[in-house]
Amino acid sequence: MNILLVDDDYYVIAALQKKIDWKMLNIETVYTANNVAQAREILEKHSVQILISDIEMPQGSGLELLAWIREQNYSIQAILLTNYADFNYAQKAIELQSFEYFLKPIEFDKLMLIIQKAVVRAKEQQSNEQAILEGYFWQKNQSKNVEHFWRRLVSGSTSFPLKQADITHAIKEQHLSYQMNDLIQPLLINVFPHNGSMGKEEKDLFDFALLNVLYELLQSPLYTIESILEVKEYNWIAILKWNGHPEDSGALQAFGSSFIQKAVPYLKCDACCSIGTAGELHNIGNILKQLLNMDEELTKCRNRTYLVANYLHQPKTAYTPPDLAQLEELLNQNKLADFLEEAIRYLKSMLSHQSLDTSVLGLFRLDIVQLVYTFLKLKGIQAHKLYAGRVNDQMLLHSLQSIEDMEEYLKYLVNTAMEYRNFAAQPKSIAEEIKQYIHAHYGDDLTRNDLAEIVYLNPDYLARLFKRETGISLGSYVIQVRIAAAKHLLETTNLSVYTIASKTGYTNYSYFSKLFKQEVGLSPNEYKKEQHSHGVG
């Protein structure tokens, strides 16, 4: 496998040659060129499978080079580099079937993975071309057939009981060589990418790196890897087929430990590994169902390995709530930090004494949420408004995935309450925020309920607080601001009174005129004439 580097910047070429581990990527020869003409000459003389080229070069662009490569029908995976996030560049790169479009400055760890993917694609292309030449094109589809077979079995095991006849039919349909007494064992891998990591920002690249790690660590003469499938986001199932009698779980537990050790530093994520039971293919429906049920029901700690065999023999325990009265008292004393500490302490004690089901954890979460919501309600704060939004929805959804996710949700829940409790305890700040909002949005519909939503307070509580701090009711203040705005528009513009009424939040012209006269002593038209006459005088 050979590669060509093209860039008019000598230092970029030197950095690529030095910082990329070409040997590890199985690249035999690294050719270099400083312009398009040199690159063409190399491509005409040597076999090159991968190209890394800058786009902006003085003697011809990387896009022009790629267009020429496509005209010549060279089978080359092209990775284009550029300093600019230009849509036209990206569009042209797509049209020319570039493998990847990469913005400078170069992040070498990501570029390594992209090159690795390009090597895999180049090898696939070579083997496909060879297969076509030899008339064995069906081999290309074999892995897809196996993947499709296992994906059907995995999805089928959760929706309806898998019958032996269904499995036999699927084997025949996909022309596979499985026997019903083959010994199969599934593994489920959950990954939790760290914030800001590749797993969060560039999932395709992360999945590629993850699969590399899994296939590398699962290599063994004892079994073959039949398929590795993503069953839902960040949840993967590996299907193993034992070559003989299954070993004890030690070998697979060792894999779990090795994977977790590698996942944290290399993939920048936490992980859990769940090991299903081994059994014959005809019983695969039950085996998969047990594994997937455990994944749904068991509250996991991150970076641990779990055995379905152990989980099946653990007794289910009922939920025993924490001392709710004590927790409520901590809230009443405004000791939210102590409340959070006690809630997390109890959560960890639950885990140490029993196998913690998600149903039990869900009841614990419900108790804590109700306590916090009640506390906020007593403070006049509308909790359902305060916690509305995407961040809350995501954290609530993920909170049952692991103990760490639940801890993170509890901290978010309590810290948000604490921050807003402190804000709500400063009535002047709230009154000022409402006043600023009214001045900025006097033309909008400003009901008491609308204004209360802005500061997540009960409307009655906000009305009392505002009057106490300003000496004027909310409704009267809105009228004052709107009339002041109307006076300014009447003084400084030639807009009609109807238009000014609409701009200041009044769709009913008669009502606007009535209010204006009450506040100013003149009708809007009279006030406008008076101001303009003064201006003329």
From TrEMBL:
Instruction: Pinpoint the HTH araC/xylS-type domain residues.
Output: 432-530
- What InterPro entries does the record tag this protein with? CheY-like_superfamily, Homeodomain-like_sf, HTH_AraC, HTH_AraC-typ_CS, Sig_transdc_resp-reg_receiver, Tscrpt_reg_AraC-type_HTH
Please name one Pfam family that this protein belongs to.
Response_reg
**Which residues fall in a coiled-coil region?**
none
Native species: Paenibacillus tianjinensis
At what positions is 4-aspartylphosphate found? D54
Protein's name according to its UniProt entry: Response regulator
Response regulatory domain location, by residue?
Answer: 2-119
